[in-house]
Structures are given as structure tokens and as C-alpha cells.
Amino acid sequence: MSQVLLFNPRSANYKPRIPNSILSIASAIEGLYDYVMVDGNLETDPWQKILGYLSGGKFGYVGITAMPGPQLKQAIPFSKKIRELFPAIKIFWGGYFPSNQSRVVLNSGYVDFVINGPGEKTFPALLDALENNKPFELIHNLIYKTGDQIIKSPN
After folding, report:
1. pTM of the prediction?
2. If we measure between CA atoms, which residue out of 150, 151, 132, 1 comes closest to residue 61?
3. CA angle (52 as vertex; 7, 50 as ends), nearest 5
4. Mean pLDDT calculated for residue range 36-43
């Protein structure tokens, strides 16, 4: 079973914020999947931390939360590097930005799925589908690309 890396990009330069979004997702997969969290607000060099984890070859999934603004400064280049260095890893984005700009995010070529809204049910359901070759088309709150078409599942 593949492991999951959850990444909270830097959102504040001075006062760290609690990464509620990835904590919420971590609690939803607790006991189901092995995972690690990397908080860009606390790490001096979050890319090196991420690279260290992914280089071990045990990770199949990276979940990234992305609000508009500062978080995109790490979310975009880190996702591009992950896609380039580890093309088999599935990359999920959640948060305000990908939910509102899903077409741009999915057309980027480095994000496989957008979790549209709360991910506590969607994220573990998607992991289960991908791990067990089950269909993911009926999973609620999911946006993904098939060919050139953007598919948005019901909420």
C-alpha cells in the first residue's frame, strides 16, 4: 500500500498558522493509510523534506492544500518538481484556489485530482479507489480530467 504525503505550503512569513486543512485530512485517513505531513510554515526547507520522503519510493500520493496568494509560491513549483521527478505519484490539490480554479489547476499538467470542498470523505474514498482499482467517477466533491474534458462529480 502506497503512503501519503500531505503538504501545507507556507502561508505566513512570521506567525505560523495551524495547518487545519491537512490535519483534517490526516484524521480522515488515520489508521487506513500511512502518511506524513510537511508544514511549509515550520520547515526551513520544505522541498528538501519532501524530496527526502519521496526518494524512498514508498509514496504514491501527495495531497497539497492551496489558498490563493502565498501558498501558490510553493504549491506550484513543488508540484511541478514532483511530477518531473516522480511521474507515477498522484498529486491531489484541495483548498480555495483549486476548488475555484479547477480548470487552470487540472490543465497545468501536474495535478491529477482536485478535492472540491471538504475532503474528509472524498480523500479516503479516492485513495481507496486508486489503491484497489475501483472506479472513482462516483466519488462526491471530486474534479478531474479525462482526455481534454474536465469532470466534476456531484457534491
Report:
1. 0.95
2. 1
3. 15
4. 94
Residue type, 37: M
DSSP secondary-structure letter at 19?
-
- DSSP state letter for 13: S
Nearest to 119 by CA among 127, 110, 109: 127
Can you tell me the distance from the alpha carbon of 7 to that of 138, in angstroms, rounded to the nearest whole number? 26
Nearest to residue 108, comparing CAs of 137, 144, 57?
144
Tell me the CB-side half-sphere exposure of residue 2, using CA atoms within 13 A.
20
Please give the single-letter amino acid code of residue 18.
Answer: I
Is residue 15 scored above 90 in pLDDT?
A: no
User: Contacts by 42-50 with C-beta closer than 8 Å and gap 24+?
Assistant: 42/16, 46/7, 46/9, 46/10, 46/74, 46/78, 47/74, 47/78, 47/81, 50/5, 50/7, 50/78, 50/82
Backbone angles phi, psi at 77, to 5 degrees: -65, -35
Total Cβ atoms within 10 A of residue 34: 12
